[in-house]
Amino acid sequence: MTHQPSPTLPAALAKAIEHHLLHTVGVAPGEAGPPELMAAFAQAVRAELSRRWVAGEAADRRDRVRRVYYLSMEFLIGRSLGNGLQALGLQGEAATSAAEHARTLEDIESTEPDAGLGNGGLGRLAACFLDGMATLGLPSYGYGIRYEFGMFAQGIQAGRQVERPDPWLADGTPWEFPRIGVHHPVRFGGWVEHSESPGAPPLWRHAAEVDAKAFDHVVPGHGTERVSTLRLWKAAAPAQIDLTAFNSGDYARAAEFKNQFENISWVLYPNDSTPAGRELRLRQEYFFTSASLQDILARHWLEHGRFDNLADQVAIHLNDTHPAIGVAELMRLLVDEHGVAWADAWATTRRVFSYTNHTLMPEALETWPVALMQHVLPRHLEIIFRINHDFLVLVEATWPGDGDVQRRLSLIDESGERRVRMAHLCIVGSHKVNGVSALHSDLLVRTVFADFARLWPDRFINVTNGVTPRRWLMQANPGLSTLLDDAIGTGWRRDLAKLDALAPWAEDADFRQRFLEVKRANKRHLARTIDTLCHVAVDPASLFDVQVKRIHEYKRQLLNVLHTVARYRAILAEPDADWVPRTVIFAGKAASSYHTAKQVIRLIHDVGQVVNHDVRVRDRLKVVFLPNYSVSLAEAIMPAADLSEQISTAGTEASGTGNMKLALNGALTIGTDDGANIEIRQHVGDDNIFIFGLRTPEVAATRAAGYQPLRLVEANPRVRGVLEAIASGAFSPDEPARHRGLVDSLLWGGDHYLLLADFEAYAAAQSRVDDLWRDPQAWARKAILNVAGMGAFSADRSIGEYAREVWHLEGRR
Fold first, then answer.
1. Are 557 and 673 in the same domain?
2. Pick from 162, 385, 406, 515: most CB atoms within 10 A?
């Protein structure tokens, strides 16, 4: 059942808003604009969530519960006001209060900036998981960094991505609670002294120290009084300024000390193409991991007064390798700071940690030069060397004399510049390692971590990702949510598996029509957003073809562009053919140092500039790129999408969650048999998804056979024409050679991600999409069946599996 708010809450909301306008915001209620109203609404919601939060924390301390701590560099939580109102069941009352101030709730909510705490799928997943932990009532904390600036705000100038600061905290945020008095020292550099006294721990003579100050965000559960905590760390210099330098007029030097330390929490993912950027990245990772582990140990000691039961009370989960240094840091804290014997500390560490791997690509597995780690974290490097020594003794006992397996498994890569393999550290230091889709987890144990899986077969499991239906259906798509309530009741809101009851409604013509009306309303809303952001008028009746995700070569936005160019050329060649009107929508950021990805963005804009202004096309094709992709923008895109592009090279996408959000909102997927696409296909049915292209074994076989893209192009006039048009400057007449590098990467660079090998299969699948679109009732039927099949892809199901199989944790409602 849907949780009902306290009877006093709705009546008190309007009064609380008026109170906060006057006493917190400091404005007369009649003069309040959207920003002031947002602040007052937020304070009213925050007060009720805080009450629940304090009560829950007190109960957990009293009962000395086992907790899970989720460490992640990113938490893309989006805006908090709408989520808080929904958790409290107060959307209707809030809308009424907004109307009393001659505003809409949407206008008020839109003034809240997205929290700049993440970049892509990793952060969106972590936010969904926090929501699931709170909703399932798990005693839980998320830990991360309080970035003052997000990765960057993406702007577009003349088709180029430009990176601007994302000052999401410029005006503060009502959602955080500064924890005065909760701070921990984090140290860097220096050297290690070893005592001659037997049993005495080494002494780390650090060269620098920064203070980590705690700021808490509430994470409300839905249908429960439970509220979880997201604790973020801000770096603060021990001494704010050099007062002597300041008083002597040297203001730059006075502030240098402060900036040297506080830049750690300034920006998410600094450009790591320089040595200074890489060092700052390592400092960031250690900073939040050390502060979090110190905080965990301090809480545990306060409640238990001992550490021999730490693994019984604490589960720490590493979301990717960014917090991997935590394995060495926990050992340092237990052994050096708290006097625990090495063997006991290691046994505890192995039981405490678990690790989620998010990538199969060896080049994406994080490593750090030994020399850099020696410079930044000398004591941790010693600990890693000792862990590695003990581990290799075990490897030698298991496979005597096998130097190759020792080299493959070692925590230190000796094949060139000596580097610490952070994923290996995670695996050796954890009791469970999981992939994030069935295919990904299978490939982990058969390819990149095959030797580890032979050594510890029970350590590896799969937990397929999931998304929260609260934000990604209930909040983002209220029209569809109401339609589902009318058809199958409200139980799906707390148990998404109940969506399977929707399947019979796909055969009901009246329901299909209502479903299409909801989709059209969402498309009209997105069309207005596109007009506002891109100044391009698109037809809501056209097929909205959507690819929204981080821009990366393996995600193959370029394949989508090649097909779009082929479609444009075909329209010009056969202007009187029955073309399905299509709007191709892209969104996503390219890493600031990723030249090829940024060039793909420019090509998208160049193609759009030509196609959108060619009168011969007659609006049968439009191409748009929505800048500065964010959670809030995604909430407008997902409900309006007709076609979901999930076209990564098979075997490269670990899971994906955008594919889940889009299908949950009634988009049909066109994609490779990769990541979670496979499981989506299994749940929605082969007839209700457009799968194309090489599968993972075929990708490997194609490469092994000596794939030659140039020969393929020579035999395919359509592909050759597309590439020649791009390379010759048809879409960049002011600079004809602008995109030759992209074409050369395919023809002469080996087409590593096999775009050209999959092009014809992709084009054929797109033709099947057109054929189905011409029959709106058949399309609606398949779209409804996609929604009905998405019950397994809830974050609640994912978190339930983690709780049972990894963290051994029970919910408290």
1. yes
2. 515
- Closest CA relative to residue 660, chosen from 792, 551, 765, 781: 792
Residue 555 annotated in active site: yes
- The verdict on 460 and 505 lying in the same domain is no
Task: Please report the pLDDT score of residue 741 as a whole number.
Answer: 97
Matching residue, tokens 């909301």: 13
Is position 598 annotated as part of the catalytic site? no
Which of 52, 549, 552, 681 is an active site residue?
A: 549
Q: How far apart are CA 552 and CA 550, in angstroms?
A: 6
pLDDT at 1: 35
Based on the fold, state whether residues 752 and 714 are members of the same structural domain. yes
Residue 100: inside a domain, yes or no? no
Residue 286 contacts residue 188 (beta carbons within 8 Å): yes
Greater confidence (2 vs 636) lies with 636
Statement to judge: residues 436 and 538 lie in one domain: no
Task: Single out the catalytic residue among 20, 213, 494, 555.
Answer: 555
The residues that bridge with 219 in the sheet, in sequence order, are 228
Kindly provide the b/e burial profile for residues 614-646, where b requires at least 16 CB atoms within 10 angstroms of the residue's own CB. Answer: eeebeebbbbbbbbbbbbbbbbbbbbbbbbbbb
Quick check: is 549 catalytic?
Answer: yes
Handedness of CA 766, 767, 770, 772 (dihedral sign): negative
In whole angstroms, give the CA distance from residue 503 to residue 495: 16
Neighbours of 99 (CB within 10 A): 11
In the chain, % of residues over pLDDT 90 = 90
The closest alpha carbon to 284, from 299, 298, 271, belongs to 271
Computed over every residue of the chain, the mean pLDDT equals 94
Domain span at 421: 64-79+114-464+799-807
Residue 6's pLDDT band, with cuts at 50, 70 and 90, is: low
pLDDT in tens, 537-565: 999 999 999 999 999 999 999 999 999 99
- For the chain, the domain total comes to 2
Q: Which of 333, 336, 314 is nearest to 325 (CA)?
A: 333
Q: Are residues 360 and 505 in the same domain?
A: no
Report the range of poorest mean pLDDT among 152-166, 236-250, 371-385.
236-250
395-401 mean pLDDT: 98
* Exposure b/e, 42-60, CB count within 10 A at least 16 = b: bbbbbebbeebbeebeeeb
Is the pLDDT reported for residue 807 higher than 50?
A: yes
Q: What is the pLDDT of residues 580-629, one digit of tens each?
A: 999 999 999 999 999 999 999 999 999 999 999 999 999 999 999 999 99
Q: Which is the catalytic residue, given 20, 281, 317, 358?
A: 358
Helix residue spans in 492-594 (DSSP H): 509-534, 557-573
- Extract the tokens encoding 756: 């050209």
329 plus 229 within the same structural domain: yes
Top-confidence residue, 325 or 198: 325
Q: Which pLDDT band, with edges at 50, 70 and 90, does 73 fall under?
A: very high
Q: Is residue 644 part of a domain?
A: yes
**Dihedral sign (CA 350, 353, 356, 361):** negative
Among the listed residues 20, 67, 620, 661, the single catalytic one is 661
The answer to the question of residue 47 being in a domain is no
Residue 71 placed within a domain: yes
Sheet containing strand 668-671, edge to edge, reads 621-626, 582-587, 543-548, 643-646, 668-671, 690-691
pLDDT for the residue numbered 695: 98
Where does residue 599 rank: exposed (0-12), middle (13-18), buried (19+ CB within 10 A)? buried
Indicate if 661 belongs to the active site: yes
How confident is the model at residue 245, as a pLDDT?
Answer: 57
Is the domain of 216 the same as that of 173? yes
In this predicted structure, what is the pLDDT of residue 404?
97
**733 burial via Cβ count (<10 Å: 0-12, 13-18, 19+):** exposed
Residues 628 and 542 reside in one and the same domain: yes
Of these residues, 317, 550, 681, 781, which one is catalytic?
550
- Of 173, 178, 179, give the one whose Cα is nearest residue 80: 173
Distance (Å, whole) CA 77 – CA 114: 8
